Amino acid sequence: MGEKDIERQAPNVARMKMLGATVVPATSGSKTLKDATNEAIRDWINHPQDTFYIIGSVVGPHPYPDMVARFQSVISKEIRSQLQEKIGTELPKAVIACVGGGSNAAGTFYHFLDEPSVEIIAVEAAGCGVHSGMSAATTQLGKPGILHGSKSYVMQTADGQVVEPHSISAGLDYPGIGPMHANLFATGRGQFLSATDKEALEASFELAKLEGIIPALESAHALAALKQLKFVKDDNVVICLSGRGDKDMETYMNELNKK
Ligand SMILES: Cc1ncc(COP(=O)(O)O)c(C=O)c1O
C-alpha cells in the first residue's frame, strides 16, 4: 500500500493488521495506488513459486481485469434482482459508479452492458480540476498506452512517462482505467464524467445529512455527478455506493474543522 495511503486510510490499515496481514509501504513515486501496484507486480514476478498476485481492481495483466470484473458482477446481478422486487422491472434508466481502476463500476455495469436502454455512467476524479495538473480524470487527459500490463487510456507525457495523478480519494488516485472501461469510453457505450475533490466532499456531506449514510470519498464522486445529469421524476437511477466513509473520517473531520 502506498505510504501516503497508509496515512490517509489508517482505519483500513489497522483492520488489515488485526486480521493478520502484513502491510508493506510502497515508498516510490507518489506513494499511492499506482506505486503500490508497481511494487506488488514487482514482488510477484520475483517470487512466482510461492506468491499470488491478488488485485482489488480491474487493472493489471490479463486475466486479472476479467477475473475481477466477473467477481464484482455480483453487484449488477443483485441490482437487477432488487429492482425486480421493488419496481417490477430489472432495468433502471441509468447506472452510475465511480472509476479508479474500475472494479466497482465494472461490477455495477456488467449485467447491463447488453441492455442498450440502460445508460452507463462512469465518474472519474477531477481532483483540483480536470486541467489543474492535479487530477485523475483519465479519459479526459489520457491517451492509449500500456500500464501495469494492459493496454488502456493512460495519463502520460508526450514521451510516454506516466503523469502523477491526484485525487482526495485514495481509491481514485490512479492514472489509468481498466481495459473494459477504455472500451466503454472508446465505443461511446459509457458516458464518462468527472467530479472534483470539492464536489465529492459536498456530496458526502449532503448524503450524510439527507440519508444518514456516510459514503466513502470514492463513492461520493459518483453521487456528485448527479448534479451534472438531468432525469425526470419517475426515472430509476442506481448509484453504486462502493464503500463506507469510516476510512475517510480523518478527511471529513479536517473538512468539518474548516467550517
Ligand atoms: C470504497 C472504494 N470505492 C471505489 C474504489 C475505487 O476502486 P475501483 O475503481 O476499482 O472500484 C476504492 C478503491 O480503493 C474504494 O476503496
Describe the structure.
By secondary structure, this protein is of the alpha/beta class. It has 2 domains: about 5-55, no CATH class; about 75-259, Rossmann fold (3-Layer(aba) Sandwich), CATH 3.40.50. About 40% of the residues lie in helices and about 15% in strands. The chain has 11 helices and 6 strands. The chain has helices spanning about 5-10, 10-20, 35-45, 65-70, 75-85, 105-110, 140, 180-185, 195-210, 215-225, 250-259, and strands at about 95-100, 120-125, 145, 150-155, 190-195, 235-240. The strands form 2 sheets. The protein has a 4-stranded parallel β-sheet with strand order 5-2-1-6, with helices on both faces. The protein has a two-stranded antiparallel sheet with strand order 3-4. Strand 3 (about 145) and strand 4 (about 150-155) form a beta hairpin. Helix 4 crosses helix 6 and helix 5 (about 75-85) crosses helix 6. The chain is globular. Bound molecules: pyridoxal-5'-phosphate.
Q: Note the total helix count.
A: 11
Distance between the termini: 31 Å
Please give the radius of gyration in angstroms. 18 Å
- CATH architecture classification of the largest domain: 3-Layer(aba) Sandwich
What order do the SSEs take from the amino end to the carboxyl end, as H and E? HHHHHEHEHEEHEHHEH
In helices, the fraction of residues equals 40-55%
Strand order of the largest sheet: 5-2-1-6
Low-confidence parts: none
Give the strand tally.
6
Bound molecules: pyridoxal-5'-phosphate
Structural class: alpha/beta
What's the number of structural domains?
Answer: 2
Tell me, briefly, the overall form. globular
Largest sheet: 4 strands, parallel
The average pLDDT value, as a whole number, equals 96
